[in-house]
């Protein structure tokens, strides 16, 4: 069964450094998402991406964040200058088609620690 | 705005006992509701979902949930817990057409006592 994969599984970085989190969605998926979960808190929506552009972003997703799908395969989340409060588990998700009932398939997550 | 509340961040049940994980929602439109499970070091896996139709929804691994509009609830149950059910469980609600982002509850960690 196809799975969403994410790399790396864990990343430790210094405050102010750039990080790129990578996701390989299921090949026939068209809609893509990033969510994050700060330790002990809710899973929060960051951004949705469709047809090579952002369709919605949360207020968390400020100018320090960007997403792209450069090669039609990988879906990346870049944080340009990390802050301590960016430490969290980041989940990528994908969905085949439009519709509120359509299942989002999640990757295993990347645990980011900013020191 | 939609929101989800999960009562009990930690629930422990004995093996073979009933599992009941609570989820209440708030939604300005008819809700689409989901339960996801996360096993250690794995991603979020869909257990079951309610969209329309029958309010009792059956999912994988023997879990089921009942949508009760009058109580704004979508509690997850399993008649007999198994050791392999130990995981974190998340309730979520889907937003309107468009990007269909999910709003999650804070999660409930289920521990099974042998």
Summarize the structure.
Chain A has 115 residues and is mainly beta.
The chain pair with the largest interface is: A-B, 31 and 28 residues
Mean pLDDT of chain B, rounded to whole units?
91
Shape of chain A: globular
Helix/strand order of chain A: EEEEEEEEEEE
Amino- and carboxy-terminal Cα gap of chain A: 37 Å
The rounded Rg of chain A comes to 13 Å
Low-confidence stretches of chain B: none
Number of strands of chain B: 12
Tell me the helix content of chain B: under 10%
Query: What order do the helices and strands of chain B follow?
Result: EEEEEEEEEEEE
Assess the beta-strand content of chain A as a share of residues: over 45%
Helix % of chain A is: under 10%
The chain-level mean pLDDT of chain A equals 91
- Tell me the number of helical segments of chain A per DSSP (H or I, 4 or more residues long): 0
Name the poorly predicted regions of chain A: none
- Provide the gyration radius of chain B in Å: 14 Å
Count of extended strands of chain A: 11
Which word captures the global form of chain B? Answer: globular
Q: Assembly state here?
A: heterodimer
Biggest β-sheet strands, sense, barrel of chain B: 6 strands, mixed
Instruction: Note the total helix count of chain B.
Output: 0
